[in-house]
Amino acid sequence: MNRRRQWKMNLLTGAVTAVISQIYWNIFLDEFRVSLAVAILPILLTTINKEESSLATCGCVSCMVFLFRWALAIINGQGVIGSMQTILPGGLFFLCYGLFFVFMVQNKYTASVTRLTLAAFSCDFISNLFETLVRSKLFFTLVQAERILYLFEVAAIRTVIVVVLLILLKNYRTLLTKEEHEKRYQRLFLMTTSLKTELYFMRKNTENVETIMGNAYHLYEMLSDLDVPQETQRLSLAIARDVHEIKKDYLRIIHGIEKEVDEQYPEKKMHLKDSLNILQESTYRMMESKNLDIKLDFRYQKDFLTDKHYSLMAILKNLENNAIEAIASVRSSGLVEIFEQQEGDSYVFSVRDDGPGIAEKNLTKIFQMGFSTKFDKQTGNIYRGVGLAGVKAAVEEEFHGKLEVRSALGAGTEFRITIPVASLEG
Length: 426
Hints:
Blueprint: H1 3-20, E1 24-26, E2 33-35, H2 37-45, H3 54-75, H4 80-104, H5 113-138, H6 145-224, H7 230-264, E3 270-271, H8 272-289, E4 293-300, E5 305-306, H9 309-328, E6 333-343, E7 346-353, H10 387-398, E8 402-408, E9 412-420, H11 421-425
Parallel strand pairs: 4-6
Antiparallel strand pairs: 1-2, 3-5, 6-7, 7-9, 8-9
Helix pairs in contact: 1-2, 1-3, 2-6, 3-4, 4-5, 5-6, 6-7, 6-9, 8-9, 9-10
């Protein structure tokens, strides 16, 4: 960490401590303060000043507290020298605190809560005792036994506050870590879902490549029986060989991606509830970035466990995104619903929206590859129209199910997906 940042963090800690130190009560003498700032200091030392020297930080805190209190005393009409004499021991308290904290907590990264608790109590008590001794000498009074006991009690009370704050901070960090882990988990799952979807179509394309290769070789055989130049025959054979090489490279890519996906995200099965939660949370984050106020209502009747969660997520995500885009094309608010229920031997998923609807003339075309009514307003590019065609192919070919659509202009759209129970749970 550079020195400029070190000074900034130290000054910030000093300013915060100086302000909080104004919350206090006096004991023994008018200027002997018991402040909540001492309970906050070890928290600051082990968080925002974790990379700093505790002695340097407390030295900065000592100067800031002294200057802050001295300025207030002068503003309130106290003498410059007299106020300095009464305020100086309070500033030295924090310097003493830092000195003992460095001795007791040599590595703030590995210090346990027990170690920090012991350090907070010891530094508090010793520093208070040091301040009392300094003030006793300055004001020619003696340190009485009951005062030491009182300082012990004060240190114990403030240490309890420190422990509570440390536990709360630890739990908060754990919560943040868990939340961040869940976000990474969700991003990884959605990325894997997209890759699995692409792999599905890549595997389908290998069948087309195989057909093309067979046709090219068949053409070579036909040309061999005809009176055509040898160059033409060799060209048709070369095409067959090249297509075969392309197919091998294509399969190597597929295997490589599949291996990487399986290693990075080894989840084999997932409950429907978890899939819907991931979809809902990721969609809300996406809509927030686009300033959309579209409500999501995801409900399920049976929380089944399936190993086809990638494909199911891809289907629901595609239909949900289409619904959101449809609503966003006319307004920034609306409602998208996903509801699952079991009907006999099938699971039925309904994806509804209150968007502008689909014209009747387009209802028979929306599942055709290449058909799309959407376009990018910024670039003017028309969408490829592979989404719904892919959804229909996945529902029918992978799940042996059925995809239906109901829609009317101004009345919204509903996609109804029927999938045999055996296809999801088998």
